[in-house]
Amino acid sequence: MSGVQLSYRITGYSCPMMYLFNAMNLSPVEKPGQRWHPRLLWVLIFTGWTLQGAAQSDSLLSESPYHAPRLSITRLVVPSAFIGTGIYTLSDNHAFNRFRVRGEIQDHIHGYRTHLDDYLAYGPSALLTGLTVAGVEGRSTPFDRAGLWLTANAIAGALTFGLKHTTGYVRPDGSNNQSFPSGHTSFAFAGAGVLDREFGRTNVLIPVAGYAMAGSTGYLRMVNDKHWISDVLVGAGIGLLSAEAAYHVYPWVKRKLTRRRNRHALSN
Length: 268
Hints:
elongated; mainly alpha; 10 helices
């Protein structure tokens, strides 16, 4: 299998997620006339190209069995705490609430705005790709790593944008009613979660860098007055849970891909 063929296969797997984003008319970057799905498609194509060194034969799928990790309760505690705290701050009946936090942040930054959050959201995924290109050994094969990343982002996308359109919370700046939860933050933490699973045992600084970029993304979303703290905390929790879920959903996804490949091979 060539690098181009592998890139096409990975991108083809992502098509349902692309269609979902397009059908829902989403704009996670929240700029007029700008959509996220072309950017994400570019990332997927680029990721596929990075796997060409691993695609040495047509038996790539069948000869690299994937074993899901054991479910870790400790990995569910932090995202659950994020989500619980985020929901708690939705109400203005507590001393710690989204309105007070927003006021504190905006009072200290004096109107400062930045576009850095639009790029930091891709940071953990870019680091994941860079380490793969460099040949750094991780938990999974490069092909499985790409599949896990795609699965995590698909889950995060479905949960995040489903909630956005269901809850209808207005953004702090009043620009629209798709504030809750933060898409930038959920995708950043989904990438950081996969990065942690893949390279956490290789070097502790790798997941630290991923979570630092993800956390900075969430903070800058509040600095830019695009999100409440509730949006960011719940988005972070969704991203982490999506990454964890991907490692248990992906075996089913891979079996489907393997069967499709085998049927295609038999038909030829």
